[in-house]
Amino acid sequence: MDGNEAQIEVRGLRKRFGAVTALDGMSFTVEPGQVTGFVGPNGAGKSTTMRILLGLDRAEEGSALIGGRPYRELRNPLLAVGALLDAAAVHPARRGRDHLLWLAHSHRLPARRVDEVIEQTGLGPAARRRAGGYSLGMRQRLGIAAALLGDPPVLLFDEPVNGLDPEGIRWMRGLLRSLAAQGRAVLVSSHLMSELEGTADHLVVIGRGRVLADTSVRELLAGASGDRVEVRTGEPDRDRAMTVLADAGATVAATGRGTLTVSGLDAQRVVALLGGAGVAFSGVAAHRATLEEAYMELTREAAEFAAGPSGPSGPSGPSGPASGEDRR
Amino acid sequence: MTLPETRDRDRDRDRDRDRAGAGPASPPAARDGFPQLLHAEWTKLRTVPRWGLTLLGGIALTVLISFFSAAGSSVEIADQDRPPVPAGREGQQLVDSVGFAHRALHGDGSITARVSGPAGVEPEQAPEWAKAGLLIRESLTPGADYAALMVTAGHGVRMQSEFARDVPGSAAASPDTPHWLRLTRTGSTVTGYESADGEEWSEVGTVRLADAPEELSVGLFVGSPDITRMERAFGNVTVGQLGSSATADFDEVSIEGGVTARDWRHTDIGGVSPSAGDPGEFRRSGSVFTLTGSGDIGPAPTDTDLAATALNGSQLGLVLIAAVGVLFITAEYRRGMIRTTFTAGPRRGRVLAAKAVVIGAVAFAAGLVAALVSFLLAMPVLRDNGHVPPMFPELALGDAAVLRAVLGTGLLLALIAVLALGLGALTRSTAVSITAVVVVFVLPLILVSTLPLELSQWLQRLTPMAGFAVQQTLPRYGHVERLCLPENACYPQGPWTGLTTLLLYTAAVLALAAWRLRKRDA
After folding, report:
1. Which of B14, B21, B343 lies nearest to residue A108, judging by beta carbons?
2. Using a CB-CB distance cutoff of 8 angstroms, which residues of chain A are in contact with residue B10?
3. What ipTM was predicted for this assembly?
4. pLDDT tens digits, residue range A198-224?
5. How big, in percent rounded to 5, are the helix, strand and coil portions of chain A?
6. Which of A6, A255, B109, B165 lies deepest, with the highest CB count within 10 Å?
7. How far apart are CA B71 and CA B382, in angstroms?
8. With an 8 Å Cβ cutoff, are B343 and A81 in contact?
9. CB-CB: which of A3, A51, A86 is closest to B2?
10. What is the pTM of this model?
């Protein structure tokens, strides 16, 4: 068996829709055995990338390979990749089971396999009802069942938890984790980092059609939280503490009465420096950034970078990650 | 990359693939997978109940409209006093009335003459199919078997028999220069010869007379078919038949063989033609015979195509069947399901082809059922309303022409459904596609009865509605002028020519749709 068939490789994708650049050199790989979060604000290019991976859209440049092959060259694509793009993409008059059945027939899969995925996704008796009457959660489950039908080594889910109730979200997380544990490559997109917290092992953060960060969750958190240490100190010692820490190369900000926010040094070093200089302090706390904060930081930088030269009327201050997209 | 804990899954997967016959190691034959696509599309079609209901509705609409138009039909025969129309062997209506100067011939023999004509009787011009020449008949009764060799006003030399048979001779022969003709009888076989100079003869054709008696009538004849005058404005058609006469001179007349009576007799076969009014004329001046006559020997086709009438509900039933063809793809665009379809089958041209095969087969079946039921229900009603032989010949489902019309209706609806599918794939819009189907198929059917005839016939020839020509069952004769009106579901072209026109449109739209599908993002 091909060693890397459970791998997604995206290299230098470029695509424009009219005057709008949707993808601007998108490159990343998705490895098997882990859940890769594909995060970015709305319009960052997540769905476009996924559509190109599935051979639905054409890129102007670059390649999108699944197990080393472009999608359109796959012999039996549903056995190689399972995808959930849009849960609403079902004919409302067709029963859920029949929807899975035509997909199965397109790949000569037996009807037994249809019943297996119905069970696996907990669709149960709803599979015999018309899809038009499904709740959003039911539709998501039907979409997942369709993706799992061919038992593929690669899975793509576009915003799978969108609209799910808390129970559904919990189920989805468990499913994503178990699929990865089975050695599959799982790519899950979301515009909310919080949705991926605790699910994703690896993150591809994108903005404006390019990759901003391609990193493990742990590294991303470390990179963000390692920057900030909060020091509580009395009024007279604050100025001395600032001097000492700034001399050691840190960026120090007085953020409140008796509070300093230090970036560029870790907490241990701060304690050692202040102790050595004889500055009194009442507490030193390493600020643990959430994934959301780390992500906001990344996307804010991207937005600022983009807004600078190209946005004549754009706000000069830092803009939220979403505002850059809203202008499209 | 291999992960130890995924081994079992991998094995399962391999088994699945083997079962699917399409693992990486499987032969490339599995790659095509067109039968799978067909199976998938068939599953899609049959699992949306409202599409099945719409198809049934298309069948029901076709049958109902066919039935009611048959129930609303009536026959009016203007001229009740006409003598009974002669009928051919299969009960078809015939014309058998020409001016005939004849003698009796016993056994084998031949007749030769030089013909000048036919010419119109001043001031009228002779119609194209006015004819003058030699005739051998079994009797003088209308409908009798015959062999005729003639010069026509506009179509050269012809040899005709059995009312329907017409064999061309030299096309160069014209009524203005004398032309030699000869008929030879041997047993029941009659052979026709022609010559420009009376010396070099060439064969035109042979005719076998069924159970020919010993004594036959041989002689000279002149005919000139009625001219059809038509006034047509906004759905109102007035058709009038106008008699015409022609005249011709014959010289160098000789009969060889067992001629009993020495005298020539003149008979207007079938009596004096009511439309011509005047009896024919026969004059001899020395060796020159001059004969004036009207009428024709040949089939008398009716204008009303009973089978086409019995099937005309398909003109509206097609809308519902085409709607399913459109929805078969636009419903997928509407919901974004087309992406699922194209992820399951990334080769979009093949997916479209599979859809076309499935919807085409289903529409064919629906059309066939609709046509069969329509024909079987509407025919007795038409009979009850006075459409009886000989004016309207007997039609049975087993007749070749009827089978062609019924099967052709299935093919017609199949092609329309596939064309509708192609339109749906091109426009991605249900409303636009169905409107297009109505504009292309239903609107012309209304328009052709109001537009000038010439324009209507071009519409019939060139637009996709040409496919309806396949429902025609009336025989076509090249040697008889016939009024072909769109109101009577008559198409200027033949049945298969019309269906081929539609086929070309369907193929073009489908090819364009496949090309667009491949080029555009889904």
Report:
1. B21
2. 1, 183
3. 0.79
4. 889 999 999 888 898 898 887 877 766
5. 40, 25, 35
6. A6
7. 7
8. yes
9. A3
10. 0.81
